[in-house]
Amino acid sequence: MNACTGPAAVVFDPALTEYDLGPQHPMSPVRIALTMRLADALGVTGVGALPIIAAPMADDDLVATVHRPQLIEAVARAGRGGVADLGFGIGSEDTPVFPRMHEASAHVVGATVEACRRVWSGEVQHAANITGGLHHAMPDRVSGFCVYNDVAVGIRWLLDHGAQRVAYVDVDVHHGDGVERVFWDDPRVLTISLHETGQLLFPGTGFPADLGGPDALGSAVNVALPPGTGDAGWLRAFHAVVPPLLREFAPDVLVTQHGCDSHADDPLAHLSLTVDGQRAAQVALHDLAHEVAGGRWVATGGGGYEIVGVVPRTWAHLLAIVGGAPVDPAAAVPEEWREHVQRAYARVAPLRMGDGRTPEHRPWEDGFDDSSWLDRMIHETRMAVFPLHGLDPWP
């Protein structure tokens, strides 16, 4: 890991866990509470460590830099109990109505924008909002557990305050369709999404031929991964696509979404990464932020539905990397945290901060195998996108 990390912060307050889609919904706010508790137990946050800064509430004008006023009004009405004929995707099984829906969602937006503001102002080099990363929300509808698209609003804020180029890398198992759509025809924003193929998984989009609008061809990059892809294959795809494009694009800021539903134990998808592999991606993105963006890095959370065994460890690693004090995957999970999990949720928590794997991959430059579904997808993405950036798509 690059040792050049400067000042950093995590934007959080407990009220952010009011983004609560219901007791049976897979995206439980418990995963946030457990992550922050684990980070504190590890000494990742707290006195002399990564500082926690308050999360402001986004006002309607800020939310409206991405979302239609009619959607904002409908969300607010739904959260007050007025649920009849709302439309806009509100009240679906994926994105049900919950009390104070607008306020909770605007709070997540405010947290991500504050992270962006802190980084862009130079107050910190790195900032994180693990409650953010709600990448499916569209300007005119809620979608896929996501009410407002905090990441898109954050990127819009950066552009409105002087950033000339922003790169967004999304490692969630689901395609980052909302962020891509908002900036589809904006050459100032490069969106890169590595996800399980839309042939098999929501939202059914994000293929190599999806390249951006006519004024921004090549600004959208999609790597559609086969089911079962593990650490070695995922990292092979990442390193074959992401670093060359980021180096060529040379963003002012790197914004990343760290959904950890790519883990083998996640109940909603079909990739096979470990916590160790996910941590390797975090380290790589940290180092790329220093290499290509002057260290300016905004990291958000995202999906992740194995709320005890996976999400807290993976995001505690993310916060440790943001703060410049990585945690060894072989380190013991603090006993106090494990006891809390047992008492509160009757679950047996992991013993170690990693899954005991050493994430390695075969470099793309060693050549690709045309009989491999994974390699064909990597090759297809490179062939479609790299020439648009003046890069050679061949190994």
Automatic annotation (TrEMBL):
The segment(s) forming the Histone deacetylase domain are 25-320
Enumerate the Pfam families for this protein.
Hist_deacetyl (PF00850)
Q: In which pathway does it act?
A: Ketone degradation; acetoin degradation
What keywords would UniProt list here?
Answer: Acetoin catabolism
Top-rank lineage group of the source organism: Bacteria
InterPro entries per record: AcuC, HDACs, His_deacetylse_dom, His_deacetylse_dom_sf, Ureohydrolase_dom_sf
Task: Give the family per the record.
Answer: Belongs to the histone deacetylase family.
Q: What is this protein called?
A: Acetoin utilization protein AcuC
Q: Which organism is it from?
A: Nocardioides fonticola
